[in-house]
Design a protein that fits this description.
Blueprint (H helix, E strand, L loop, with lengths): L2 H24 L13 E6 L5 H15 L1 H6 L2 E6 L4 H7 L5 H8 L3 E4 L16 H8 L4 E8 L4 E8 L12 E4 L2 E3 L6 H17 L4 E6 L7 H13 L6 E6 H7 L11 E4 L1 H15 L6 E5 L4 E5 L5 H5 L9 H13 L3 H17 L11 H10 L2
Bound molecules: 3-isopropylmalic acid and magnesium ion.
Length: 378
Amino acid sequence: MDKLEAAKAHFAALVEEQLARVERMKNDTGAVDYSKLDQIIIGCCGGDGIGPAITAEAERVLRAVLKDDVASGKIVFKQIDGLTIENRIAANKAIPDDVLAELKACDIILKGPTTTPSKGDGPNIESANVAMRRELDLFANVRPVAVPEEGIDWTFFRENTEGEYALGSKGIALDADMSFDFKVTTTQGTERIARQAFEFARKNGKKRVAIITKANILKKTDGKFLELCYKVAKEYPEIEVDDWFVDIISANLINEKVRKNFQVFVLPNLYGDIITDEAAQIQGGVGTAGSANVGNKYAMFEAIHGSAPRMVETGREQYANPASMIKAAELLLRHIGYKDEADRVIAALKIANDTIKMTGRNDGATGAEFANCVIENL
Ligand code: IPM
Ligand code: MG
C-alpha cells in the first residue's frame, strides 16, 4: 500500500473508534450516587518509584479518619499491586488486563504516580494515567490550587479524555519526513466537562468561570469547545463567564494584580496539563497538589507529580513527602460524601505542613512521621 493509502486507512480507523466513543458517551446513564451504596471499595494502587511509599501513608490517613466505617464494613480497602512499570513492559500494555479488572472491581481509586516511558526509552507504552482515564472514562480532572494569604482560590476543570490525549499514541509517521498527531473534540465530551465546572461553581458559591482555549488558532476543536462552554453557561445565568487564550492566561496567573479574580477554569486536556503545573508551582510546587479524575462510574485520585525514581535509586523513598497523596485522599473523601472527614484531613495536613520539616533526605522527617502527625491531628 502506498503511504497515502496507508495514512487514509489509519485515519479512517481512528475516526471509527472515536465515533464509537461518542455513542458510548451518548448512552452513559449518569453519575453514581455513593450515598446509596451499601459498601464502598477503595482500591489503593501504589504505582512506581516513591508511589507505593506515599500511597501507603495516605491509606493510613484514610483508615484512621474512616475507622468506624472500616470497622462496620461500609468501607473496604483493596490493595492493587500490579500497576508497575515492570509489569507494564512485560505485558506490553499501559495497564495489564488483570490490573484493569482489579481496578474496575473498585468504586474509587487512590493511585500513586506511575512512570511513563518517553519515546526512545524502551518499548513505546502509553502512559498508565492516560490509559486509566480512558478505560474508566474519567472525564473531569479537577485540580484545586489555593494560596489563602494571597487570595488565590482556583479550581481547574481539565477535560481528561479528549483533545491531544485521545489519540496521543496513535499519530501517523507518514514517512521519514512527516508525522501527524491528532486532536479530537466532541460535543458530548465538551458539554460534560463544562457542566461539571458550572455545577461546581453553582454549588460552591463561585461567581466566575473562565474558559481557556486557543480558539483563534485551533478553530475546529477549540472553537467547538469554546462555543459549547458558552452554550452550557446559559444554564447558569447567575455565573459570570468569560474566555481567555491559553497564552495570556499563563501570563495572568503570575500577574499578582489580576490573578486573584479568577475562581473556576474550564479547559481542554493539554492546556489543563500545562496550566495546572504552573498553578501548582504558585501554590508551592507540584508536590503540593492533588488531583481528582472523575467519571460517572469510577473516580481516581492522585498526586500531580511523577514517581521520582531517583529518590528510590538513592534509597530515599522513606523521606518522600506524602502530602500530595494525602491531599488526593482528602479529595477522594469529599467525592464520596465524607465532607467532615475531608475537612479534618485538610486541617490536620496544614498542621503537619507547618510543623514537620520534610527535605526528601535523612536530615528531614520521614513520610511515616509526617503521616503520623496528620493522624494525631485528625
Ligand atoms: C498529569 C501528568 C500526566 C498528563 C502524564 C503523567 C501522562 O502530567 O497528570 O498532569 O500528562 O496528564
Ligand atoms: Mg501534568
